[in-house]
Amino acid sequence: MPRPSNTYRTRIDRVVDHIQRRPGSDLSLASLAKVAHFSPYHFHRLFKAHVGETLNHFVRRTRLERAAVLMRSSPGRSLSAIAEECGFGALATLSRTFKEVYGLSPSRWDRVTRLQERKIDQAGVEFPVYSEEQFREMESQFPVTVERVSAMRLAYVRTADSYAEGAFQRIYDRLMDWAQAEGLPAGCVFAMSHDDPDVTPKEKCRLDVAMTVPDGFAPRRGVRLRTVPDTWVARARCTGEFINIHKVWEFLYRHWLPSSRWEPRHLPAMEYFRTQPEDWWRDEVVDLDAWIPIRRLRRI
């Protein structure tokens, strides 16, 4: 029986092969998550953890490299035909992407000179990249427990631009003001991110801030409701400086999950606030639990 980490690798490799064989096909997040049999909520993180680059970047690079090969090997073919075959849809899209990456248009490339990405495309990542040795050290910092969580009814508010300055504070305050106006007792508060800025433009990244409400409660206005079903979760506590939030998610997706016997369910990852965010900003520390809804790993 293969180790769990090998099962993850096999399913990710299946996607890599699919992209490279069929660059002109539908290579959307939803489509590729289906190839891997992983939830779209989590697939982009798992792909980056195993491949070392984001799904969007890998798809773009694969399509561009295929286009360059065709331009060199089939000089009689039109650029429009190559653009369509490689998944760009239109010559304008290929030309724009080619120039963004290589600094010249495909029509100006002599098809002999070696192509190199511009330095702007090779800039360092915003957050640290951790080694396996560092992840092993994090095992004591972020001990993971697997727990059963009962179904929860949540009232939530959403922002569709979660990286905008003050966006989180605004929707958190809005939820707290709503709860006070409804006379609700303090419930458990969560944040749920539906998108990853490596995949989705930052101005379109959606974030929900949610609070548990009693069964049967019907809000008058101002919020939406959803039910998170009974589920197993992988749970890791995160305290200390703010960078630890990034660190705990990297640890869970890149180190703990692939070596476990679990895989993510088709439910959003959640941050459970042990203390209120206003305390974090005052004390410059965080205190939350990172939750990933999980199920038994399938060997597909």
Structure explained in plain terms:
- There is one protein chain.
- The chain has 300 residues and is α+β, with helices and mostly antiparallel strands.
- The chain folds into two domains: 4-122, Arc Repressor Mutant, subunit A (Orthogonal Bundle); 137-296, Alpha-Beta Barrel (Multidrug-efflux Transporter 1 Regulator Bmrr, Chain A), CATH 3.20.80.
- Helix content is 41%, strand content 19%.
- The chain has ten helices and nine strands.
- Strands 1, 2, 3, 4, 5, 6, 7, 8 and 9 form a nine-stranded antiparallel beta sheet that branches.
- Helix 1 (4-21) crosses helix 2 and helix 3 (40-51) packs across helix 9.
- It is elongated and about 70 Å long.
